Amino acid sequence: MQKRLIAATFLLAACGPAAAPNTVPPPSSGSAQAQTPPAAPKGKPEIGEWGFDLAGMNRQVAPGANFYNFANGTWQSKTPIPADKSNYGMFTALSDQSDARTKEIILNASGEPGTESRKVADYYKAFMDESGIESKGLAPIQPELDSIKGIRDVAGLVSAFARNSRLMRSSPLMTIVTQDDREPEKHIANVAQGGLGLPDRDMYDAKAKQFEKVREGYKKYLETVFTLAGEKDGKRRAAAVYALEEKLALQHWTKVQNRDPVKTYNKLTVAELEKSAPGIDWKQWLTGVGLSGQTHVNVNQPSAVTSTAKLIKSEPVAVWKDYLTVRLVSSTSPFLPKRFVDAHFEMYGRTLSGTPELKERWKRGVEEVTGSMGEAVGKIYVSKHFTPATKARADELVKNLLVAMGQRLEALAWMSPETKAKAKAKLATYNPKIGYPKNWRDYSALTVVADNPVENDARASAFEYDRRLAKLGKPVDRDEWEMVPMTVNAYYNPVLNEIVFPAAILQPPFFDPNADDAINYGGIGAVIGHEISHGFDDQGSQYDASGALKNWWTEEDATKFKAATNQLVAQYAAYCPFPAQGDKPAQCVKGDLTLGENIADLAGLTVAHSAYRLSLAGKEAPVYDGMTGDQRFFLGWAQVWRRLYRDQELSNRLITDPHSPSEFRTAVVRNLDSFYEAFKPEPKDAHFLVPNQRVRIW
Hints:
Layout: E1 10-11, H1 67-78, E2 87-89, H2 90-107, H3 116-128, H4 130-136, H5 142-149, H6 154-166, E3 173-179, E4 187-193, H7 212-228, H8 234-251, E5 267-269, H9 270-276, H10 282-288, E6 296-299, H11 302-314, H12 317-332, H13 338-353, H14 361-385, H15 388-411, H16 417-428, E7 431-435, H17 453-469, E8 491-493, E9 498-502, H18 517-533, H19 555-573, H20 595-615, H21 629-640, E10 643-645, H22 647-656, H23 662-666, H24 673-679
Parallel strand pairs: 4-6, 7-9
Antiparallel strand pairs: 1-8, 2-10, 3-4, 5-6, 8-9
Helix pairs in contact: 2-14, 3-14, 5-12, 6-10, 6-12, 7-8, 7-13, 8-12, 15-16, 15-18, 15-20, 18-20, 18-21
């Protein structure tokens, strides 16, 4: 489990499982041929010398019919999804490479007991000791199981839920310390909804036919957990736990509601919390999560927290105890004997995501070490795999993109001078972070043993929770990172007004120091632009230059911005990877859920293209393999979004992922005039939009 990425940040691409091979629809009829397809090069390597995989294209598809298929269609049809993955693409390919490099670092870790390197080695060794794990059976969690059996009342439940929160295990109420959105120089403790065994509240809805097998699989899993734990009457008890989770799910806020930073900011005194959410002893809860001295907390979802407190009091203690048993066994299954691992994978791998095979144990071990001691490994990773030259070139690209964004802000015709000045002031305070943090995390307070992975996981979770808890009342550390260098991803953090690019994403096809500038600007340049523009998407635009959640827009400008974003919501809501079939309705992109990422894709690509044109200093770009600079720029964008999904995982992502599926992220090109100039799509083509229908924001 990743224990580091907890703060509210905007991710470039969701990590972890996604969904179905060959989900890209065929080109629309009448557009089978590209109008002016570049000729396949003769006598040259399959990979263009300028950094693009020419062999992965499908030149039988018109760029204007389906640009994703034009750029990636052959790759799409010939690339299998590895058996241990729910999705596969450029992000996962680089992640695999990063994992292999990380494994080498871990295997070479050694040292005296108590040293950082020895802790890394022991953490991995404990996880990989399958025979030792088998011999211990349930013994590592038996004391906790016994403790749950001993609960007699609501007070006992509250203590158990608080313990789960401190160990970052699933709990109906969760607490975590983050920066205060209204006062970003301070920290605040948050109380939030939690506790579901399925990834999202909507999956519990019986009307959601696409998740019918998932629901049945989860009910079966609950019963299996009781059997594995040596408990009797598992079927009845599993049904009761599921019914309890259904009630929790009904109270939860939706993913779209949780995107609103104003509605999720509700700073209350302890007395106000007690009054708004009666049913449990909140002072007991706050003491249990280490917040006994706090006078205020932020309640993220007030109505859900109120309803959850009532459920804790009103539902039978026996059912809540069974719920706690399930949560304990499920959360520790990766560190228990094979029968627990297999049952967990059957539910969360095969049933939930459609993944045929469990990852090799070493890969899971690398994930555990990375999630718990990532910066201890990261400092070695960057010394081996991230050169000063790469960092310098990336720094230069970021500066160029910031300049281009500033020029676009200055040129905006729809924004008033008053709002424009504040937008430019915000851009001027951006803090780019490239490759790795200035200061590495100190793991001296973390105890690791070589023979108990359950204990190591619990201690690592408690270490991270306590590290965050200790921030209360202390200055904000603006040099801290929320991702480790081995992560193939990037993020923007609005309260720090920072853009962050770990070392592992600064590699081909995203970034290649030896590649053509057009490809780099279309790849990592658009990624950088994406993160820059998150500060001006529908969420980030609500934070000012200091990182405070504060309106800095005139009413008229906000109305114009809303009109443009509504247009983008409608455009993406029309993308339906799964058409209606029988009694099953179509499954489409949620335009309101993915809005922030779609704005960032549109703005990022637009800004990256401006930066690319600026880099040419007025000269014409050379033509390579029959392709102009602008054509190569857009191909660079399309190439990074190559991705295959399994069906069930894609269904999951359509309701849980704030990012659109990769094909539709690529399709954002249809809003850029420069795409039309580069590829000359025709009005009959599916991607074609008349000028007044093209969404233009930044």
